[in-house]
Amino acid sequence: MTGISIRSANIDDAQKIADFHVRVWRHTYQDLAPAEAFAVLNEKYRGEKWKEKLSSNDASQIVLIAEIGRRMVGIGAAGGPSESIFGDRGEIKFLYVDPDFKRRGIGRQLLARLASHLREMNYQGAALSVVKGNDLAIAFYEALNGRQAGEYIDPGPVWRSKNVVFAWDDVASLVP
Ligand SMILES: CC(C)(COP(=O)(O)OP(=O)(O)OC[C@H]1O[C@@H](n2cnc3c(N)ncnc32)[C@H](O)[C@@H]1OP(=O)(O)O)[C@@H](O)C(=O)NCCC(=O)NCCS
């Protein structure tokens, strides 16, 4: 699709990313997440987390924003593995596309850029976790040749969700 640009985020984007994250997260998990998670994972909570992430000096971390004009239509983040189940692969930590802009290649493009960054950081593979029951995301990762590589329960504390792990042993396979 034409008109999409992808750029690195900076600290000034933190709250806008958080607001977008909350909106798409609620849309995605309305039938899956417990009410407590909906209450706790609000704009303020996410805002603090994104400010923290975007203030970090950790060069392995990347946060990307996809835009059409000045409208945010997607976000993605990647970095070093946060759970032992990811092994020594780089981790795709967040990937969210505006529901009004799905199936236009934005997710694929963001994932390619995140994978390219992980490759530059010398990770051979990539992995991520997706909540069991998030069937659309699972279909997306399967379409991009992700391999199911196990399951784990999120340590919480907000939502101890059951997750499926997807892995790509060659991160370069995600980079066109
Ligand atoms: C999952 C998500 C990132 C996909 O982004 P997207 O921009 O809609 O996906 P793309 O247009 O890049 O799709 C690439 C390919 O994946 C497959 N795919 C994507 N969405 C699919 C769906 N709902 N059903 C089946 N296949 C799908 C298709 O093969 C598609 O190619 P095609 O459109 O040429 O057939 C997006 O739907 C999203 O943000 N969902 C909500 C948040 C979420 O669940 N994030 C993941 C958390 S782990």
From TrEMBL:
InterPro entries: Acyl_CoA_acyltransferase, Bact_Acetyltransf, GNAT_dom
Gene Ontology CC, one term: ribosome
A GO molecular-function annotation: acyltransferase activity, transferring groups other than amino-acyl groups
Name of one Pfam family that matches: Acetyltransf_1
Transport recorded as keyword: no
Keyword annotations of the record: Acyltransferase, Ribonucleoprotein, Ribosomal protein, Transferase
Residue ranges annotated for the N-acetyltransferase domain, each copy included: 4-165
Domain of life: Bacteria
Record's protein name: Ribosomal protein S18 acetylase RimI
Organism: Paraburkholderia phenazinium
Organismal lineage: Bacteria, Pseudomonadati, Pseudomonadota, Betaproteobacteria, Burkholderiales
